[in-house]
Design a protein that fits this description.
With 188 residues, the protein is α/β, with parallel strands linked by helices. The chain has a single domain, classed as DHBP synthase. It is built from seven helices and nine strands. The protein has a nine-stranded mixed beta sheet. A hairpin with a 5-residue loop joins strand 8 and strand 9. It is globular, with a radius of gyration of 15 Å. One of its GO terms (molecular function) is L-threonylcarbamoyladenylate synthase. It comes from Microbulbifer epialgicus. Its EC number is 2.7.7.87. Belongs to the SUA5 family. TsaC subfamily.
Length: 188
């Protein structure tokens, strides 16, 4: 997976300016934006034709980006996260009203993933924290696995598209509920 530091900086600048970008993740391409920017999140949801109520995933290359959300967890719960991070496992964690409604949707939990994808991890470090990242596809379509698919889906509607290639995993990230231990979506 090769990418340039210039691409990381361009992507981070686009996010900071309220843009919506496409970037590779562990298995598919993702659409990303600043989770604290309601207009950017609305634009991302509109591009995907995704309802706000479904909620979104927050992704970071640093577990510390989620420290406020993890402080109420017990030692065993924190260990479960640490055992799978960084990596392609997304955990549903109680948000205790610490994230905006436009991120958690109609849920009492928020989806968190500490990524091991080198570009995405570098992007979040350069941006200065977690980003919204959801599969790069309109609702009902297959997630994009290549940059050309992203461009076919979204054309020039995005503020940045790039960052190398995906991590090559066969399926989107696994999703697990931390409190119940239930597997919500199997991973690759």
């Amino acid at each position: 997976m090769s990418y340039s530091s210039l691409a990381v900086k361009q992507a981070a600048r686009a996010l900071a300016a309220g843009g919506v970008i496409a970037h590779p993740t562990e298995s598919v391409w993702g659409l990303a934006c600043d989770p604290n920017n309601l207009q950017a999140v609305r634009r991302l949801l509109q591009l995907k034709s995704r309802p706000l109520e479904k909620g979104l995933i927050l992704v970071s290359g640093e577990e510390e980006s989620f420290s406020e959300l993890l402080e109420s967890l017990n030692e065993e719960q924190r260990q479960q996260l640490s055992d799978t991070w960084p990596g392609p496992v997304t955990w549903l964690v109680p948000h205790l009203n610490r994230v905006p409604y436009w991120v958690c949707g109609a849920h009492s939990s928020v989806a968190l993933r500490c990524t091991d994808h080198s570009f995405t991890a570098a992007l979040t470090r350069t941006f200065g924290g977690a980003i919204v990242s959801t599969s790069a596809n309109p609702a009902g379509c297959q997630p994009a696995r290549h940059k050309y698919q992203v461009l076919r889906y979204f054309g020039d509607a995005l503020d940045f598209v790039g960052g190398g290639s995906t991590g090559g995993r066969s399926a989107p990230s696994e999703i697990r509920d931390l409190l119940s231990g239930r597997l919500m979506r199997p991973g690759g």
